[in-house]
Amino acid sequence: MGRQITIGTRGSQLALWQANWVKSALEEKFSDLSVELLIIKTKGDKILDVPLAKVGGKGLFVKEIEEALLDGRIDLAVHSMKDMPADIPEGLCIGAIPERENPRDALVSRHNLPLAELPRGARVGTSSLRRSAQLKSVRPDIEIVSLRGNLGTRLKKLETEDLDAIILAAAGLRRMGFEDRITECLDETVMLPAVGQGALCIESRENDPEIGPLMAALNHGETRTVVLGERAFLNRLEGGCQVPIACHGELSADGGFALTGLVASLDGMTVIRERLSGPAAECERIGVALAEQLLAQGAEEILESLKETDENNNR
Ligand SMILES: NCc1[nH]cc(CCC(=O)O)c1CC(=O)O
Q1: What are the entry keywords (predicted)?
Q2: Atom of ligand 1 at shortest distance to CA of 81?
């Protein structure tokens, strides 16, 4: 007799691609298993006309899916790791983190010009505070244009909104078959990625005996180590507000782990960036220690001032 499980996912093309990838991987590894998808609309899918930084709140793309997991309507949830808040609700866990795609950000530009060759005052579309702050820091002349919507919509807006370029995660472009649109994969010295970018998060109920072996089969140990280090960094910094935070970890062949983290002011005038390394087994401690270094070097003031702006916006 076959087993049947249900995966909860958002309905965007990228989310469906990711959920279908997990479905195929599971059905291939477990021949008695059949996997169904349940599409769940999240708050982030409903509010489309407001820049995400202004919508506020944590877990905009995950909360409704986590509720379905908690009340048993689904057995697994597939998210982009980047969309996961630092805290996982009681009773749930990160069951598996499959092997990561390219974590970097990609520039897609209209006339195929790399960042360094974009004209003065170029209009670049992104609504990520992390991307805009880092862009302004290297190119203060660039005009940032707020850009939301799914990948296809954003690529179209490159033409319709008269933009010179847009910035998107390379991983999403690749999964959607738009890799050939990438003009330049931005170097990390210019654009440090978001925590977890390019990785998937498969969330499950804690101690679920039926799901545990499925999670073990999908998990990629190295990716998990790196992403947990990045998330420990995020966890230590997150103060309930939208902040330009970036972080990327890497393992070396000899079991070392190096983490680079960054906190910037919205205007990109202040960028605090540090790198810390140590044994991979201590990835989470390294993440916390790196966050504390940044806090001591001025990130604390940036986070405080952003909290005040947040409160003013909410009034
Ligand atoms: N915020 C939306 C989102 N969540 C994950 C990805 C890309 C795929 C990934 O990072 O795994 C994207 C799109 C983008 O930032 O361009």
Answers
A1: Porphyrin biosynthesis, Transferase
A2: 11
pLDDT at 46: 81
Give the model's pLDDT for residue 56.
Answer: 57
Shortest-distance atom of ligand 1 to CA 168: 16
pTM over 0.90: yes
Order of strands, edge to edge, in the sheet holding 165-169?
A: 143-145, 123-125, 165-169, 105-109, 184-185
Rounded to the nearest whole angstrom, what is the distance from the C-alpha of residue 80 to the centroid of ligand 1? 7
Burial pattern 226-260, b for ≥16 Cβ within 10 A else e, equals bbbbbbbbbbbbbeebbbbbbbbbebeeeeebbbb
Distance CA 126, CA 163 (A): 10
Ligand 1 centroid distance, CA of 194 (Å): 9
Residues with CB under 6 A from ligand 1: 80, 82-83, 168-169, 171-172, 197-198
Q: For the chain, which domains are there?
A: 1-98+200-219 (3.40.190.10), 105-185 (3.40.190.10), 221-315 (3.30.160.40)
Active site residues: 83
pLDDT at 217: 98
SS3 content of the chain, % helix, strand, coil (to 5): 40, 25, 35
Output the residue whose Cα is nearest ligand 1's atom 6: 172
